[in-house]
Amino acid sequence: MKLLYTPIDCYVHTVEAVISYAGLRHQVEPVATKPFDQDTGLPAINPVGKVPTLILDDGEYLAGGPVIYEYLDSLHDRSRLYPRQGRHRYTVLRQAWMADALFDQFVLLIIEGWLYPDRQRQDHVVRCWAKVTGILDQMERDAGSYEDPDIAQFRGVGALSFVELKMRQVGEQVNGIDPAYDWRQGRPTLSGWYETFGSDPVFQTPLLPWD
Questions:
Q1: Alpha helices per DSSP H over the chain
Q2: Which residue has the higher pLDDT, 191 or 35?
Q3: Which of 11, 79, 115, 149 could form an S-S bond across to 119 if both were Cys, CB 3.0 to 4.6 Å?
Q4: Sorting pLDDT into bands at 50, 70 and 90, what band is 210?
């Protein structure tokens, strides 16, 4: 299999962690891919033009983090990251979706920061930031019930590492956002879980050297 993705310094890629957890590091060839490059061949494989994209041995591709994570989770004999059935499965899926939303809201703020300060949409910034803090507050409430490793916790580590990586950039470039904001303040349960769970070796070794 080949994994097309973009290595980012100091960012925990969920797909890397899932590959490590599943013991598939020697079965997946990582391919550094910059989807916005003019000469990228990504759209010829995945017409949406996004990473991660996983090319299977028979040539079929899988795209979208949740699809790839669940496929990789089907290839190992450890405890599954995706519960197979029952209420717990849907709780985990909701929590994973929420972590995805935290990542997405930060991307929207990064994009807003590309605009000149006088062209930024303050109402849009306020909405995005309210969602960021609301998601973090919900994660604080959820963290006390985290048990065995699951995809929501893997995705949570990835999303929180992205917030830490991009917080200063967003604060410096987007009107009304404090670059010194610390998501850990007032969220002791989430912070403690992140320090403990996020230190697991599966999150520490990237597939490729960082750019």
A1: 14-21, 42-45, 65-73, 87-112, 122-143, 151-173, 188-197
A2: 191
A3: 115
A4: low
What's the pTM? 0.93
Cβ-Cβ contacts under 8 Å for 31 (sequence gap 6 or more) = 2, 3, 4, 5
Tokens of 190: 């989430």
Q: Over the stretch 134-171, which tens digit does the pLDDT of each residue have?
A: 999 999 999 999 999 999 999 999 999 999 999 999 99
DSSP for 22-69, written as a single string: TT-TTT-EEEE--TTSTT--HHHH-TT--S-EEE-TTS-EEESHHHHH
What sign for the dihedral angle of Cα 1, 149, 136, 194? Answer: negative
Which token pair is 78?
């450890």
- Is the pLDDT at 211 greater than 60? The verdict is no
Tell me the CA end-to-end span of the chain in Å, nearest whole number.
22
SS3 176: coil
- For residue 103, give both structure tokens: 């990542």
Residue 142 structure tokens: 């959820």
Q: What 3-state DSSP class applies to 174?
A: coil
Show the domains of the chain with their CATH numbers.
2-78 (3.40.30.10), 87-202 (1.20.1050.10)
